[in-house]
UniProtKB/TrEMBL annotation:
One Pfam family in the UniProt entry: DUF2291
Superkingdom: Bacteria
Identification of the protein by name: DUF2291 family protein
InterPro entries the record matches: TM0957-like_sf (IPR036215), UCP033535_lipo (IPR014582)
Amino acid sequence: MKKGIFIVILLVLGYNSIYFKKLSEVRNQQQTSFDFKTFADSLYYQGILKSNNAVELSQLSALVQSNPDSAFKAYGNRLGIGNSAYFMVKGEGKVIEKQASGLKVVTDTHTILMVDTKYIFGNAIRDASGLVKLTDFKTNADFNKLSEALNNVIREKAIPEDLKAINVGDKITLSGATKLSKTQDKSTTLSILPIRISKTE
């Protein structure tokens, strides 16, 4: 009996100690007990925001045009093979439009950024971060639940606070995720799912 109680205590302590840095423990959690919301919150605030893996937009754009293979190898993250990858990017620009669905920003290099602040869905931010992988979870469904929880943290909690102080004409710094393909048209418009937006003083 004492041995059984000891095992239960160890399991509880193990669960409470899980952070994104200990993803090897995730696969040991039962689906009914794993708290995706808490884990996503930790992944965002303690992982993604503190990570330095975002590449400058101007640097990435130049490299994608001159040597896409090198750009994708150095900065892209993807789960499988193919011509597309997710990138964590950062940059600065001026807000030229502010709508309910997001911001339109122009950079100093005349790149137009469409920053979607309303429809933050899918796996772009999860995969661009490079901090989690499918093998950390028991099923694809669990892996996708993490994306949903992470997107909710950003869409409903983080970004609305960022947007309160931002208006048309403001200069901002921005970090977020984007999906690029080696075969896509090299246009001057880039779609970004934001993870942080800050007004430049």
